[in-house]
Write a structure and sequence with these properties.
The protein is α/β, with parallel strands linked by helices and 112 residues long. The protein has one domain. The protein has 5 helices and 5 strands, in the order βαβααβαββα. A 5-stranded parallel β-sheet has the order 1-2-3-4-5. α4 links the parallel β3 and β4.
């Protein structure tokens, strides 16, 4: 299901955490993912700010908010998690929207 996204998937909650990951990882063969439901809690602009300095593949967890998930894709987020997706999607988004989270590593696990 996550074939277009490099693994492992690493849960990141701040730009500081992402910087720590970037400083210890070369090349960037991973996908960062927000904490569960973070899109609903903090919004798309927050996630865009977290990832802004780096060219990394990312997934924003939008909880059950279909509207938020679709908006995130419109705004250029690579992928989204939406647990209650019932809309018909444009073909180009079908492989970028997921009904559940992939297995993820914490930052601590990724840095070991």
């Amino acid at each position: 299901m996550f074939a277009l996204f490099p693994s492992p998937f690493i849960c990141i909650s701040s730009q500081k955490a992402l910087t720590a990951l970037i400083d210890h990882t070369t090349p960037y063969e991973f996908t960062i993912i927000s904490p569960p439901h973070a899109g609903c809690s903090f919004g798309i602009p927050w996630w865009q700010e977290v990832i802004r300095p780096y060219n990394v593949t990312s997934i924003l967890d939008c909880g059950a908010s279909t509207a938020l998930a679709l908006e995130a894709l419109e705004r250029g987020i690579d992928g989204v998690v939406c647990r209650d997706m019932r809309s018909v999607l444009p073909k180009e988004w079908e492989k970028r929207l997921f009904p559940y989270r992939p297995s993820t590593l914490t930052l601590g696990q990724a840095l070991r």
